[in-house]
Amino acid sequence: MSENNEKKVASEEAQENGATDGTQKTELEIAIEEAAKWKNDFLYLKAEFENYKRNALKERSDLLKFGSERIARDLLEVVDNFDRALELGVTPETAQTFKVGMEMTAKELKDMLNRHGIQEIPSAGQMFNPQHHEAISSEPTTEFPDGHVARVFKKPYKLHDKIIRMGQVVVATTPQK
């Protein structure tokens, strides 16, 4: 009876190991099949990752190349308004209308910049801030307290929370008596 039990156990092991024709796979054959399966899985994942890297590089390149498209389109609308104003020409009779048109176009430009996250940093009369301002000179004045911005030559701007242009300012000092 022990011979029958041994054949039954061997038969069950053969079925578990994938042998159906009565031949039993050795542990080596099973290990080779598993290694081949793992190798194929690895090669598939490697190819997928290479495709991912290639697509990510292309997306990054396209973003750098075309990332300013929205702001460019909006800016072209403002340029069109300037071109139309310059085509009309300015005469003494149209000077006031021309000025109003330029003011409207300037407001349109500032609104467009705000829509894209570009904002002016208020400076005149504010305390001098070396993170926002570049002092190009100082002048004695009683109009503003010492260390405050007396005049602005170039306004500072930020894009969201990042300073993209420092302001050029004149800093007030206390007059000598």
UniProtKB/TrEMBL annotation:
User: Which is an annotated GO molecular function term of this record?
Assistant: adenyl-nucleotide exchange factor activity
Q: Per its database record, what is this protein's job?
A: Participates actively in the response to hyperosmotic and heat shock by preventing the aggregation of stress-denatured proteins, in association with DnaK and GrpE. It is the nucleotide exchange factor for DnaK and may function as a thermosensor. Unfolded proteins bind initially to DnaJ; upon interaction with the DnaJ-bound protein, DnaK hydrolyzes its bound ATP, resulting in the formation of a stable complex. GrpE releases ADP from DnaK; ATP binding to DnaK triggers the release of the substrate protein, thus completing the reaction cycle.
Task: List the CDD domains.
Answer: GrpE (cd00446)
User: What is the organism field in this record?
Assistant: Pseudobdellovibrio exovorus JSS
Say if the entry is tagged with keyword Chaperone.
yes
Oligomer and partners: Homodimer.
InterPro entries registered for this protein in UniProt: GrpE, GrpE_CC, GrpE_head
Among the GO biological process terms of this entry, one is: protein folding
Family listed: Belongs to the GrpE family.
User: What broad taxonomic lineage does this protein's source fall under?
Assistant: Bacteria, Pseudomonadati, Bdellovibrionota, Bdellovibrionia, Bdellovibrionales
Q: Which GO terms describe its cellular component?
A: cytoplasm
The primary location reported for this protein is cytoplasm
Protein encoded by which gene: grpE
Q: Where in the cell is it found?
A: Cytoplasm
Q: Where is this region: Disordered?
A: 1-26
Q: Which UniProt keywords apply?
A: Chaperone, Cytoplasm, Stress response
* Protein known as: Protein GrpE
Extent of the signal sequence: none
Compositional bias, Basic and acidic residues, is annotated for: 1-11
